[in-house]
What we know:
The complex is a heterodimer. Chain A has helices at residues 17-26, 44-55; strands at residues 5-10, 34-39, 58-65, 68-74. Chain A is an alpha+beta fold. Chain A has a single domain, classed as TusA-like domain (Translation Initiation Factor IF3, 2-Layer Sandwich), CATH 3.30.110. The longest helix of chain A is centred in the middle third of the chain and has 12 residues, at 44-55. Chain A is globular. By secondary structure, chain B is an alpha/beta fold. Chain B contains 6 helices and 4 strands. Chain B has helices spanning 33-48, 77-85, 103-114, 120-129, 138-144, 161-168; strands at 23-28, 52-57, 133-136, 172-175. A 4-stranded parallel sheet of chain B has the order 3-2-1-4, sandwiched between helices. The N and C termini of chain B lie far apart (48 Å). Chain A binds chain B through residues 12-17, 19-20, 22-24, 51, 54-55, and chain B through 41, 44-45, 47-50, 115-118, 126, 129-130.
Amino acid sequence: MTITVMKLDLKGLSCPLPIVKTAKAMRDLRPGELVEVLATDPGSVPDFTAWARSTGNELVERTEEGGVYRFVLRKKG
Amino acid sequence: MGEIENAVEVEPRAAASDDEDDRLVIFAWSGDLDRVWPTLILATTGAAMGMRTTVFFTFWGLFPLVRNDVRITGENWMQKMMSVLNRGGTEHLKLSKMNFGGAGSAMMKELAREQKVASPSELLEMARDMGVRLIPCQMTMDLLGLGREDLVEGLEEPAGATTALLEAKGATTLFI
Lengths: 77, 176
């Protein structure tokens, strides 16, 4: 199985859209596939961490550059 | 004496979530903008978290489910009067305080647009998309003279308090 990366640009969106849109988009992924999310909502930092923990999707990377938060998530397999 | 033959076994509905215990049930009682908003935010987030999410719309809470293009609802003059004084639809919600004849609500919606906060209309659409079960209260529909044709598409069958309470049993419940 090839691992594909889906990119979601959710910059500018406020709670709960970054999480809701990510959850919806990840339905189309197969287990193990990765998604890269860009967001600017500071609340998305604790939210993505908690969301990953509760849903079983893995938060692989979490970085910040110039006010843009980047999350890489692996779909639960 | 005959035997009771009509006892009906009710099959539990198939769970949308893997975990049957992970459920969120919101009783949406209010039709105020500042309550409908968090109701829909929590419902869409619950669905995003994989919770089997249900919103039971009752009393004033039913008005936001009226189609935005429907103006007057009801069968008799009292029900019609109610709809005139309290227009339904997610586009016509008012703040519970600082409404100032609609100016406050308009200002709040403008602020939300600037901050890219999803509107109640968008959130309702998203809730349906995410598989949130939206149940209108049958009794309120009768009371207000609302028919299915007055309400938005994509709702569950109207139901009563028993359905709502059974759904709420063992779930995280909120009354908003």
